[in-house]
Amino acid sequence: MKCAIILAGGKGTRMKADCPKVMCKVLFKPMISYVIDAVKEAGVEDICVITGYKHEEVEAYLSQDIKTALQEPQLGTGHAVMQANDFIASHLGDDILILNGDGPLMDAETINKAYDYHKNNANAITLISAMVDDTTGIGHIKRDENGTLLRIVEDKDATEEEKLIKESNAGCYWFGGADLQYALSNITNENVQNEYYLTDSLEILISAGKNAGAYVVENSEVVLGANDRKQLNDLNTIMRRNINTRLMLEGVDIPCTDGVMIGKDVKIGNSTVILPNTIIIGDTVIGDGCEIGPNTYIDNSTIGNGVILDNCKILDSTVENGVDCGPFVKVRANSTLAENVHIGNFVEVKNSHVGKGTKSAHLTYIGDSDVGSDVNFGCGTVTCNYDGKTKSRCTIGNGAFIGCNTNLIAPVEVGDMAYIAAGSTITDSIPEKALSVARARQVIKEGWVEKKKPYKNQK
Ligand code: UD1
Ligand code: CA
């Protein structure tokens, strides 16, 4: 059985963040979420996360199936793993993967290739390493003249000569369960930082006559972590490029990637065009042949085929085939725009169902409403859904015509095919096919201005 320990106890002082370092985000998701996804995708069945600094925040984020162990105080990566003693004791005959929670580019393929290497060589420890140009702050992999592994030297403890070693420790290791237990019982804090280094396990197991190996990855990016905001930005850049590239190869058209940030879990169909400054995140699914952007933000929404979203914000909603939205449209949580709806300039929809073919082309608020199909909203319609205390719903029937500048005072029902005169304030429900005029009648007073001269400069 494969199991894993993820290190997430550190504060991440250099990040200068209020949250634990592993909760710092890459493409709008905490770094640790990527590590957990990779581990699960690699077939790991039992996971223990080591928490420490602001552990409640990490614990609240983790799903129920993940175990935790608290490290208090945080005395280094070796000390962190020691807190998982019980977890390790229950997996002595298994293979245990240990990884840093701040390395979100590590992937399942690399983890499993390292696992195969680990098993094929009957290793007690297999670490993942890569050739890295900027080795500041990392562990250098020290080998003898024959290339045999000796130990890992942390950058802070390294001599000038050791600092030149480019082969770097990724912070991701496979251990035999019993071998890990043995190594931990021998780690000390005799080093520059007075920390218990997990990396000392390599030398400890080699000294005990065990097999040790390093699986060297070709793509050194998978080993990158983030200790500060600059490195966090680097990870965002790499992750963003990788996702955009994958989508393009799958048939998504991104003519210019400027400002295009697409989350890892987003699915986008063939021949959909994504235009600049578009952010798509959460569990969003977009169909084929859509045009999304420019300047569009979509979170956690389902978008059908052939949809146009131009300068829109779409949150937790469903947009069906053929819908045309924008520019400057906001669709808030729990809304559905059914097939071929057209929502135009400066329109907001919230917690509403808008039926097939309905049009709301300009300056309208549709909140807490059930709107039928083929309704026409005139410019400036407002569903007045809130009286200061309670929210109420409006129901608008199929084929209704809502004149410009109508206020619908909820709760109110507009029947099928009903017709509302422009400028009406509707307080009472309207039967189907009826006309409702709810405005003061126009009054004309001939010559009134001549007599009154109501304006300051009027001659
Ligand atoms: C570590 C490795 C280094 C490797 C690098 C790769 C050690 C001693 N060094 O260094 O060889 O090249 O990762 O990124 O392991 N953590 C705890 N408790 C602690 C300290 C850390 O849970 O007491 C967690 C952190 O939250 C983090 C992970 O362990 O997720 C790594 O810690 P960090 O301090 O970033 O280690 P590095 O200095 O980067
Ligand atoms: Ca680190």
Taken as a percent bin, the fraction of beta residues is: 25-35%
Cα-to-Cα separation, first versus last residue = 95 Å
Number of strands: 38
Number of helices: 10
Bound molecules: uridine-diphosphate-N-acetylglucosamine, calcium ion
Helix content: 10-25%
Largest sheet: 15 strands, parallel
Output the radius of gyration: 31 Å
Average residue-wise pLDDT? 97
Using the alpha-carbon principal axes, give the shape: elongated
Detail the poorly predicted runs.
none
Query: Which structural class best describes the helix and strand composition?
Result: alpha/beta
Question: Could you provide a short overview of the structure?
Answer:
With 459 residues, this protein is an alpha/beta fold. Helix content is 19%, strand content 30%. The strands form 6 sheets. It has a 15-stranded parallel beta sheet that branches. It has a 9-stranded parallel beta sheet with strand order 13-16-19-22-25-27-29-32-35, with no helix packed on it.
What does it look like?
This protein is α/β, with parallel strands linked by helices. It contains ten helices and 38 strands. Strand 4 (46-51), helix 2 (55-61) and strand 5 (67-70) form a beta-alpha-beta unit. Helix 7 (177-184) packs across helix 8 (201-207). The chain is elongated and about 105 Å long. Bound molecules: uridine-diphosphate-N-acetylglucosamine (UD1) and calcium ion (CA). Residues 7-10, 21-22, 50, 52, 71, 74-77, 79-80, 100-103, 137-139, 152, 154, 168-171, 197-199, 225, 227 line the site of uridine-diphosphate-N-acetylglucosamine (UD1).
